[in-house]
Amino acid sequence: MAYLGPRLGPSRVFLSGVSALRLVSSAGMDDMGLAMSRSSLERLEFDNVALKKLPLDPSEEQGVRQVKGACFSRVTPQPLTKPRFVAVSHQAQALLGLDGEEVVNDPLGPEYLSGSKVMPGSEPAAHCYCGHQFGQFAGQLGDGAACYLGEVKVPSGQDPELLRENPSGRWEIQVKGAGLTPYSRQADGRKVLRSSIREFLCSEAMFFLGVPTTRAGSVVTSDSRVIRDVYYNGHARHERCSVVLRIAPTFIRFGSFEIFKPADEFTGRQGPSYGRDEIRGQMMDYVIEMFYPEIQQNYPDRVERNVAFFREVVLRTARLVAQWQCVGFCHGVLNTDNMSILGLTLDYGPYGFMDRFDPDFICNASDNSGRYSYQAQPAICRWNLGKLAEALAPELPPDRAEAVLEEYLDLYNRFYLENMRKKLGLLKKEDPEDEILITKLLQTMHNTGADFTNTFRSLSLISCPTEENSEGEEDSVKKATDLLIEQCASLEELKAANKPTMDPRELAVLLSMAQSNPALFQMISDRATIARQLERLSKLKDLMETTQEELKTKQAEDWTSWITQYRKRLARELEGQSDVQAVQEERVRVMDSTNPRVILRNYIAQNAIEAAENGDFSEVQRVLKVLEKPFSSQPGLELPAWVGGGGTSAEGERDEGEEQQQEAATSMPRNPVPYDSKPPAWANEICVT
Questions:
Q1: Minimal CA–CA distance to 147: which of 121, 166, 122?
Q2: Residue 679 gets which letter from DSSP?
Q3: Global pTM value
Q4: Which keywords appear in this protein's UniProt record, sorted alphabetically (predicted)?
Q5: Alpha carbon of 447 to those of 442, 453, 467, 485: distances in Å?
C-alpha cells in the first residue's frame, strides 16, 4: 500500500532519542499516548443537523427504489481494496480543522476519506432529489454515487470570511464514488480515477480563482475495479475505483425541492414525495434558518421571508454565472439537480475551460443540441431558477416569484460588466460605451481565434497613452497588436475549429425535412443547431480560400482597430488624476489579480490523469500547487513534473500497484508546453462526456 509521505504501521513507530525501555516504563502516560495516537480524523466533531431536521427514510431496504416522504436514506459505503491517496488539498482539509500533512501520513486516512471505514460520529446517508435534465423532468434522481458522511463543526479560529459565507457553523462532507445507494439507478455507485481527478482539481481551481464552489479535500484510488465504456463505442475497459472527498456548507440543490412535483405534462413522471407539502415547508425552514439566518431574522412574515430567500438565490446565481463567463468556464450539465441552493458551482462532470474564444463552445460531447453551451449558460440558469420557483410554490407565491425573476437579467448584466471592467482595467470611470468596447473585444477574439485566458492576461501589458510616454501612438498600437497576434489561431486551427460536426448528408436531409415536414423536423432537431452548422460551413469555405499570410494581415487589422479604441478609453481613465503613475500601477495590479495566468485546461488535467493511471501521482499534486496560485508566476512550476525527469516521481508518490506500467509512465510522447501556454494541437482530440 502506498501513501503520500512516510509510511506508518502499528509496529514501526520510533521516537528519536527515546529508548524502548523508557517507552515501556511510561505506563502512567498510556491514556495521553492513546489520545495522541488516535487518527485526527477520529477526533472530528460531528453534528449532523440535516438528519435531525429533515425526514429520514425509515426503510433500510437494500437496492435501488423509490423513496417517498424522505430527504435522506441511510446507506452503507462499500469498502475499497487497498485504498491510497492520490492527492490531498491541505487548504480544503483546513476547513475541517485538519492538518494536511497529518492526513497524508495517517495510515487510516485513505480508508476514512473513501468511506471504506466510517469515522466516529459519521452517519452515512444519501440525499433524495429530482431534476430537469436537458429540459425534461426526469423524476427521482438523488445521490447515486455520493454519500453524505455528516456535518463537521467549524473549528475555532476559522477565517471570518469563510464563516460569513457559511453561517451554519458546520461543513458537510461527502464521499463521491463510495458505492450503491437507493438512487444509483442503473449505475454501480462508483467513480473512476479520471473523473475523480477532474472533479478534485477543478473544485480547488475554482476556489482559488475566486469563484463560489464546493471544495475537494482529497482523492483516493484503489485496487477495486469497474468496467467503463468511456465513449459508449463498445470499447469497455477496467478502471480503478476512486473516491473524492467533497466539502460544502450543504449540497442541497434546486432539484431537492422538485421531489414534490406533480406528474409532468411532458414526461408523465412525478416527484416521489408529491402531496407531502409539509416536507417542503420543513426543507425551506431548514435551508433559510441554517444558511440564510439574516433573512430568517429580518422577515417575521413567512411569505415575505420566502420571497427574500428566493431573491437572494436569484442574486447569487446571477453572480455565479457572471463569474463563470468571465473566466471562460463551461459547466456542461446545467440541469436543475446540478444547481446549488447557495449559489455554488456544484457537480464537476464534463466541464471545460474555453481555450480559443467561441461563444458556441460546448464542453460536453453528449450535448448535441448545444443546450448548455458557453453563451447559453446565463439564460439556462434563469430557466432553472424558474423551475425552482415552481417547486417552491405555494410556499413562494408564483406572482411574487415572477417579479423576482424579472430582476435576474439586470443583476447578471451588472455583475458581468463589473467583472469585465476589472479585466480591462477600467476602474476610475463607468463609461456607457464600455459595453460596446467589451462586445467588440469578444468579437475580435472570436474572429481571430484568440485564446480567451491569455488574451485577457496580456491586456495589462498594453500601455496607457500619457504625455510622458515617448513612444509614438502608431508604435504603441503596433507593439500591442504584435502581443495579441501571438494568441491568435493559425489557419489550420481555424479550419479544424469550423469543420461542421454533422455529416453533410445528414445536414442535407434535415434541411429538406425542415421545408417539407416541419413537425417531424422539430422532433429530431432544431433550427439553432442547423444554423450553427451552416455558419461553420460558410466560415470554412472562406478559410479554404485564404492563405496564412492573408489571415495574419486580417487578424492584425482587427486587433489594431480594437486596441486603438481601448487606448482612447484608457486615456479617459487618467483624466483629472493627479498621480498618473499610481493609477497605472493600480490598473496593472487589479488586472493581474483578475485575469488568471493559469486555468485548468483539459490537456493539463489529461496529462495528470494519464500519469496517475500509470501509477505516478506527482503530476496531480503538482497541478494542484500551480492552481492554488493561478494569478502568479511560480518559478520551478512552469512545466509538467515529468519534463526532464524521465517521468520519475518522489518516494511515496508512485502507486505500488502499477509496477508493470512504470515503463509506460516514463516516456510521454507529447511535446511538453508550459501550464500558461495555449493548448497543444493534440488537446483538440480530448473528448469529455
A1: 122
A2: P
A3: 0.91
A4: ATP-binding, Coiled coil, Magnesium, Metal-binding, Nucleotide-binding, Nucleotidyltransferase, Transferase
A5: 9, 16, 33, 12
